[in-house]
Design brief:
It is a single chain. With about 300 residues, the protein is of the alpha+beta class. About 50% of the residues lie in helices and about 10% in strands. The strands form 2 sheets. A 4-stranded antiparallel sheet has the order 4-5-3-6. Strands 1-2 form a two-stranded antiparallel sheet. A hairpin with a 2-residue loop joins strand 4 (about 270-275) and strand 5 (about 275-285). The longest helix has 15 residues, at about 15-30. It starts with 6 loop residues before the first strand and ends with a strand. The relative contact order is 0.11. Mean pLDDT is about 75; it is low at about 10-20 and about 185-235. Keywords: Signal. It holds the Pfam family SPOR.
């Protein structure tokens, strides 16, 4: 929810529920310290909702200093008790902390429940082979679902994936889309923080995907061959690695993107036509590490292409 911070209300025994509810009421009135005082004893006793709320407080610095390690610890305690919001938040936080193998099982459970942020991040991992084994059909299915949920960058990432999928991978991915549900309605135990609270929504902090792509499998189709032509004759760069920055139906849009990011990315531009689109690629990187650095510097969704 944009501009809001999700907090959980306990729906267990009445005494504990009253305490968590009191903390939530204090939170919604901007009384952060009083909210923390209500939740901390319950969190220590093992109450999952109080643990989740305390983790949120540490993550966004409400009533306590920002402490991501404390936030991760409390998210994990709640997540390991099956708290769904905590599972979502913990997996995302692990991904953002570059602890992707640890994030995988939590993101996987969240994605299977229909959480679009988890679907986008998990698709990135599976496509890149980053923290998980490469699985192109599943990555395509998850990114499709995230795109249908209007996740930022998902549609562009999906378009870039198309260039590297075999027809069989794409067909299998489309079949898998139906195995991942859309996100169900928000549970009754979720409440919004005060509108004056400056903490951003979780989705606003998700990295674009794929930011650092592993080399795609060579596809036997003519389109895949067109996606990796030799560098332009005028190029002074000699490295064989490339970074694809986007795929556009209008060549002018590719030119505009290069003017925007070319100085940050480096290398030389190549405009590769095929399949009704023009793919903008930065060329001339000596190895995968250099291409990945360029991809990270671009500030847009991009894919590293092996020679």
């Amino acid at each position: 929810m944009k501009g809001s911070l999700a907090l959980a209300m306990l729906v267990a025994t009445p005494p504990a529920a009253a305490d968590v509810k009191a903390g939530l009421d204090a939170w919604n009135h901007g009384e952060w310290a009083r909210a923390i005082a209500e939740w901390r004893p319950l969190a220590i006793q093992g109450d999952a909702d109080a643990q989740f709320n305390l983790a949120q407080a540490y993550k966004f610095g409400r009533g306590v200093p920002v402490d991501l390690n404390q936030a991760l610890a409390w998210f994990k305690r709640a997540a390991d008790q099956g708290h769904r919001q905590a599972e979502d938040s913990y997996g995302i936080a692990l991904f953002q902390s570059n602890r992707k193998p640890e994030a995988f099982p939590y993101l996987d459970r969240s994605a299977r429940r229909g959480e679009p942020r988890a679907q986008l991040l998990l698709a990135t991992m599976l496509f890149n082979g980053d923290g998980a084994a490469i699985d192109y059909p599943r990555a395509y299915a998850l990114m499709t679902r995230a795109s249908l949920a209007k996740m930022p960058s998902a549609a562009q990432s999906l378009s870039q994936m198309e260039a590297f999928l075999t027809p069989a991978d794409r067909e299998r991915g489309l079949q898998l889309v139906e195995t991942y549900p859309a996100l169900a309605g928000t549970a009754a135990k979720v409440a919004a923080a005060p509108t004056s609270a400056p903490a951003p929504p979780l989705a606003a902090r998700q990295p674009a995907a794929p930011r650092q792509a592993a080399p795609p499998r060579p596809a036997p189709s003519p389109r895949a061959v067109q996606a990796r032509p030799a560098p332009p004759r005028a190029s002074t760069a000699s490295g064989p690695w490339r970074v694809q920055l986007g795929a556009f139906r209008d060549r002018a849009n590719a030119d505009a993107l290069w003017k925007k990011v070319g100085a940050r990315v480096g290398g030389e531009p190549a405009y590769v036509a095929g399949g009704g689109v023009t793919r903008l690629q930065a060329t001339g990187f000596p190895d995968r590490a250099a291409a990945r650095r360029a991809c990270a510097a671009a500030g847009v969704s991009c894919v590293v292409i092996a020679p």
